[in-house]
Amino acid sequence: MTDSGFSLFQITLQQRTASVETLLSELLSDRPQSGEISRPPRLMAAMRHGVLNGGKRLRPFLVMESAALFGADNLAALRVAAALECVHSYSLVHDDLPAMDNDDMRRGQPTVHRKFDEAAAILAGDSLLTYAFALIASEETELDAQARVALIAALARASGIGGMTGGQALDLEAANVKPDEEGIIRLQAMKTGALIRFACEAGAIIGHADTKDRERLAEYGSAIGLAFQLADDLLDVTADASNMGKATGKDAAAGKATLVSMHSVEWTKRQLAGLVAQAEDLLAPFGEKAALLKDAAHFIAERKN
């Protein structure tokens, strides 16, 4: 990846991040929206803490850039991107709970249950999840009904039993019975990869892409989703907590099975390079229009935090 390409990617990522954070700030205000009776201030504060606490906003970026590939409406893509970030943030709020991963810090700040309490964290997560589907279903997301239904169905699958929450269940089970390599890949594809895959497929749905291109974007999402988790596991071994904004070395301390621990750091780096190459091959038919999505694959595999 060239310096100029990386710079353009970083600038675009920052622009997309600013757009989605502005929208999320508006959506998560204390002011009740149409059909709502009221918004409890403490609940809203906990929700905002779980969402507006930094982060790369990579999933929203992938929604918007994938949609742009097909000339889709930017505002509709932005609202779907905000909905996805609500689901992602809900998952982090709940994963940090003592009953799950039991983390005290997230992005350099206290986790929601530490800043507020466990009940507030549970309710904040519940509210973010349900709000995400309301955002997509709303007529303000200016897509035809068929596209909105397709997005809701795809997000429900990605975030549910066969996706993210199922992956978290497998992750908890792995504390007692270590999975083999195939099991680790399945777990990671569900817990981490499913929402990233959805982000890329969502752009194709928003852009009314044909079935072949929708599948191509979904496969690209699967490749970079696995790369994201591999890079995360690698950083848990090689990075320090100040760079990560959360505790590191937890996987090794807990005896958790990862592909890094099963193989080696060098093996993991080779796998990451292979996944980037796979992602670039999948995007090749789109030519230069997909340059930023190619850069995103490199960013994910080479990130330092």
TrEMBL record:
InterPro entries for this protein: Isoprenoid_synthase_dom_sf (IPR008949), Polyprenyl_synt (IPR000092), Polyprenyl_synt_CS (IPR033749), Prenyl_diphosphate_synthase (IPR053378)
CDD domains, sorted: Trans_IPPS_HT
GO MF, one annotated term: prenyltransferase activity
Needed cofactors: Mg(2+)
Tree of life domain: Bacteria
Keyword set includes Metal-binding: yes
One of the record's GO cellular component terms: cytoplasm
An example Gene Ontology biological process: terpenoid biosynthetic process
Assigned keywords, A-Z: Isoprene biosynthesis, Magnesium, Metal-binding, Transferase
Family as reported in the entry's similarity comment: Belongs to the FPP/GGPP synthase family.
PANTHER family according to UniProt: FARNESYL DIPHOSPHATE SYNTHASE (PTHR43281)
Protein name: Probable farnesyl diphosphate synthase
Species this chain originates from: Phyllobacterium zundukense
Lineage: Bacteria, Pseudomonadati, Pseudomonadota, Alphaproteobacteria, Hyphomicrobiales
